[in-house]
C-alpha cells in the first residue's frame, strides 16, 4: 500500500528511488508507466494524466524483453512500428544503434549478444520513439560491475543530451548516487517518501571523490532514519547493496 506520495520531477531531471524491499518502489514505477492505476490521486506527465502505457513514457525492466527470433535492428524498430513512426525507420534505427555503441551489430541475433549488449538494444528501442520519460526498474542488476558502470554512464549521458527525464528504482546505493540528481528514500507500511537527497554534481560522477563519499554517508543516515534503524549499522542483512566500482572507469 502506498500513501501520501507527493513529488514534482522537473523535465530532464534524473531521480533515483531507494528503500527496503516491499516498500512499493516498483509498484510506483508501474503506476508512472501506466501499467497500474492508483486508487486515489493522479500521476501527470507534462500536464497529461497517466492512465495507460504510452511510448512517451517508456519502461526498461530487469530483463531486456527482446524477441529472439528478430535480429538487433528488427528489435529496435518494433517501437517505431507499434507507434506508426515508420518514416525513415531504417536511418532512425541505425542512428539509435550508433548512439548506444552497437552500430556494427545490427544484423546480429540476440543470442549472440552479451547481457550488457542486450540492454543496450533495449535502450535503443526505448530511445527510438523519442520518449519524454524513461523508467528504469533495476535494468542493470544482473550485469557485471564494469558493464553496469558503463551503462549507468551511457544512460545518464544520453538522457542529459536529449533532455529525457529518468526515474530509476534500485537497491544499489552507489547506482542511486551515480545516476540521480535527486534521491528519494521510501519507507514501508505504508509505502511513502521519507527522505530526499539532492546532488548537484554533474555527470559522469567519480564515486570515489570526497564530496560524493560524504553524500553517500549522508544518504545512508537518511536511509537508516527512514527504516527505523539505530545510528549503528544493523546486524541483519542490509537492504541496500553496493556495487564494486572498476577503478579504470570511475577515475576517468
Any descriptors?
two-stranded antiparallel ribbon, 252 residues, disordered C terminus, single chain, 2 domains, Rossmann fold, alpha/beta, 15% strand, 8 strands, six-stranded mixed beta sheet, 36% helix
Could you characterize the architecture of this molecule?
The protein is α/β, with parallel strands linked by helices and 252 residues long. The protein has 2 domains: 1-56 and 133-252, Rossmann fold; 65-130, no CATH class. It is built from 8 helices and 8 strands. The strands form 2 sheets. Strands 4-5-6-1-7-8 form a 6-stranded mixed sheet, sandwiched between helices. The protein has a two-stranded antiparallel ribbon with strand order 2-3. It starts with 13 loop residues before the first strand and ends with a helix.
CATH architecture of the largest domain: 3-Layer(aba) Sandwich
Q: Which residues sit in consecutive blocks of at least 5 with pLDDT less than 50?
A: 230-238, 245-252
Number of domains: 2
The level-1 CATH class of the largest domain: Alpha Beta
Structural class: alpha/beta
Q: What's the pLDDT, averaged over the residues?
A: 88
Tell me how many strands there are.
8
CATH-wise, what's the superfamily of the largest domain? Answer: P-loop containing nucleotide triphosphate hydrolases
What is the helix fraction of residues, given as a range?
A: 25-40%
Beginning-to-end CA distance, first to last residue: 42 Å
Rg measurement, Å: 18 Å
The dominant shape is: globular
Strand residue content: 5-15%
Amino acid at each position: 500500500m502506498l500513501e501520501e506520495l507527493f513529488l514534482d520531477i522537473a523535465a530532464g531531471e534524473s531521480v533515483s528511488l531507494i528503500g527496503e524491499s516491499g516498500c512499493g518502489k516498483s509498484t510506483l514505477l508501474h503506476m508512472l508507466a501506466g501499467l497500474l492505476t492508483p486508487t486515489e490521486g493522479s500521476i501527470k506527465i507534462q500536464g497529461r494524466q497517466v492512465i495507460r502505457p504510452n511510448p512517451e513514457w517508456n519502461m526498461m525492466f530487469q530483463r531486456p524483453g527482446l524477441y529472439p527470433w528478430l535480429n538487433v535492428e528488427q528489435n529496435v524498430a518494433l517501437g517505431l512500428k507499434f507507434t506508426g513512426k515508420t518514416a525513415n525507420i531504417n536511418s532512425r534505427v541505425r542512428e539509435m544503434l550508433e548512439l548506444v555503441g552497437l552500430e556494427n551489430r545490427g544484423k546480429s541475433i540476440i543470442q549472440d549478444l552479451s547481457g550488457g549488449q542486450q540492454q543496450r538494444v533495449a535502450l535503443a528501442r526505448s530511445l527510438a520513439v523519442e520518449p519524454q520519460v524513461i523508467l528504469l526498474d533495476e535494468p542493470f542488476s544482473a550485469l557485471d560491475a564494469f558493464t553496469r558502470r558503463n551503462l549507468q554512464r551511457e544512460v545518464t549521458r544520453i538522457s542529459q543530451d536529449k533532455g529525457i527525464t529518468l526515474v530509476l528504482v534500485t537497491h544499489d546505493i552507489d547506482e542511486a548516487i551515480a545516476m540521480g540528481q535527486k534521491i528519494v528514500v521510501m519507507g514501508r507500511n505504508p509505502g511513502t517518501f521519507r527522505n530526499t537527497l539532492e546532488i548537484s554534481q554533474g555527470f559522469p560522477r567519480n564515486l570515489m571523490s570526497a564530496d560524493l563519499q560524504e553524500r553517500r554517508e549522508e544518504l545512508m543516515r537518511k536511509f537508516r532514519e527512514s527504516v527505523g534503524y539505530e545510528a549503528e549499522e544493523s546486524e541483519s542483512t542490509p537492504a541496500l547493496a553496493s556495487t564494486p566500482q572498476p577503478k579504470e572507469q570511475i577515475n576517468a
